Amino acid sequence: MQSITAFFPRPASLRRRGWIFFFCAALAGLLGPTQRLAAQVSLTMPSPIEIPAGPLGSWGLSGVVSYAGFATPDQYGAEKNGGDLTNGFAILQKTTGQWQFFVMAGGYAYPALGAGRLTTTQYTQFFGLVPEAYAEYVFNPHWSIEAGKLPTLIGQESTWSYLNYNIQRGLVWNDMENLVSRAAQLNMTYGKWTVNLQYGDGFYAGYHFGAPSAAIAYAINAKNTFTFVALIPNKNTPPNGTFFDANAQLYDFMYTYTGKNWSWTPYVIFMNSPASTARGYTSAANGMGYVLLGGYRFNPEWILGMRAEYATTNGSLASTSANMNILGYGPGAKAATFTLTPTWQDKDLFARGEFSLVHAMDYAPGAVFGKGGTGANEFRGAAEIGVTF
Length: 389
Known about the structure:
Number of strands: 18
Mean pLDDT: 89
CATH class: Mainly Beta
Helix content: under 10%
Number of helices: 3
CATH architecture: Beta Barrel
Structural class: mainly beta
CATH topology: Porin
């Protein structure tokens, strides 16, 4: 883990963006600990096992273990039938007092629609056996600061399947969002406003490439919340194992509704990978993602999760800039997806099935689905079983 000061490089290319970011931070300070922006959650997690730690306070231990199987009738490329561990986590945390912490350790997988599936070992290599870990100091009920490996502020889907309605992540999540950042974050809450200001390495690109991020949420009432999030990396940030267009700016508009039975978490995201001489990007690449996430709880045991997406990108098949192939289906490609996921849970045990469809448009021949990569549609079935503690 890099030292906290390593997260604040000051190259000349960041100075103007840094002033804008810290002006926003000052403005947010006028508004006034944080509530981390929550993903949609279908599972009911048990209370953590309490561990007395003497003068260090009370710690909590919890976890989840799950296995999922996948079947795709007409496979392509890296796609394959079979199964693997999706969640294998032990979570140790302290949520009281001024000094708090969170450590998540274990193996994991986050398969996504329209993309080849890797093994749990391969996924775990991206963020390591401790994918999230941070320390937090709570000044008072309105202010806190934290640093470590933090989850992204972008989007309504978590990286980890047990925190989502669906077993698989969405196409927009996979191709237009970052997941984890090594970062420092300032959190403020005042009345109906919640503000999170983060400075880290964006798409897990290394501390040499700084990326400010900010989230501003307004809770109209207990059921309705609007949130805006922005991430602005250094335009010369190089590709890495977690994301190719790691210099991409992200602007995300989110809405959350939580009712008695229905929950809705739609969002719209704009992605822009600017031209960069250092990276050999001769043109700006951009895309729009429109995502509707929802869940209906029939009773304490059953919930039906659903997701619909539409993604567009600029460019054409004649585009040659290396950053233009955002969806992986060729420059200028578009795609739509639909997913249904019924979930059953009885105390600590849970099981869910899933049906998904991806439909690609304006794609490059050989870059999509089927044996020859020429099919426009991908159907996929999945099933997951697990236990929480």
